[in-house]
Amino acid sequence: MIGTRRVDGVRLARIAHPGGVAFASIEGDGDDAQVLEIAEHPFGNNPNFTGKRWPLADVRLLAPILPSKVIAVGRNYAKHAAEFGNELPKDPMLFIKPSTTVVGPNVPIRRPRGVGRVDFEGELAIVIGQPVKNVPAARAASAILGYTVANDVSARDLQKADGQWGRAKGFDTFCPLGPWIETSLDAADLALKSEVDGVLKQDGRTSDLVHKIPELVEFVSGVMTLLPGDVILTGTPEGVGPIEDGQSVSITIEGIGTLTNPVQDV
Ligand code: ZN
């Protein structure tokens, strides 16, 4: 099984297996799903496979990428902007979540005591595949490794009180990512659903993005150099709401999968 294979059309994951941590591709579905270890990193056209493989059930999925930065876009769905009485910004409204907000599937979202309301926000996440600056929208696809699911966890009371969003969006564990990166996906019109304890809260479509994916890549890369693995959160549809200790939040995007995290007061 040692050899090379194009990165296109695979589900890329980071896994903890009996011997350590590695990137991997996932093949097959359900009980038959297998995890194939990738040597080194998944960027470029020809990742090397080590030949090691495990049943998916025997490994733990980690955050599929450790980005140097997470760039998020605020108020990028009209109905979400309206639910808090906000105007739509003319340009994409960017903020940064520290890399230390990132956690993987099933890792608890740690909700600090005393910060007031904390909300989930289900979002499509763009994962960048190569160093880029000033990418025109028409060439955005060449900069993208793939897509994953994100939860832009937000301390809503602090967000309102501070004006700046660095604190409200920046607590450790406030950016669950996963379960893996789909490298071959047209993300222009995908269903996005969020559930808290199995109750449907958000039911949107990525076709309702105000600023579309190619435009976001052009805009963000016009500001800052994007590095392999960097993540752009594209904004959340309407229906956000609070999460409490002991609850579980699941975000599902069509064609990718479901990202589930418990919530824990700390
Ligand atoms: Zn958001």
How would you explain this protein's 3D organization?
The protein is mainly β and 266 residues long. The N terminus is likely disordered. Zinc ion binds next to loops.
Question: Can you describe this structure in just a few lines?
Answer:
The protein has 266 residues and is mainly beta.
Features:
266 residues, mainly beta, 13-stranded mixed sheet, five-stranded mixed sheet, 21 strands, binds zinc ion
Q: Could you give the order of the helices and strands?
A: EEEEEEEHEEEEEEEHEEEHEEEE
Main beta sheet, described? 13 strands, mixed
Instruction: Classify the beta-strand content into a percent band.
Output: 35-45%
* Uncertain stretches: 1-6
What is the distance, rounded to the nearest whole angstrom, between the alpha carbons of the first and last residues? 45 Å
Structural class: mainly beta
Helix run count: 3
Helix content: under 10%
Oligomer: single chain
Summarize the helices and strands and which ones pair or pack.
Elements: E1 3-4, E2 11-17, E3 20-27, E4 34-38, E5 48-55, E6 60-62, E7 70-74, H1 78-83, E8 93-97, E9 102-103, E10 109-111, E11 118-120, E12 122-128, E13 144-151, E14 154-155, H2 156-162, E15 175-182, E16 191-196, E17 199-205, H3 213-223, E18 231-233, E19 241-242, E20 248-253, E21 257-265
The structure holds zinc ion (ZN).
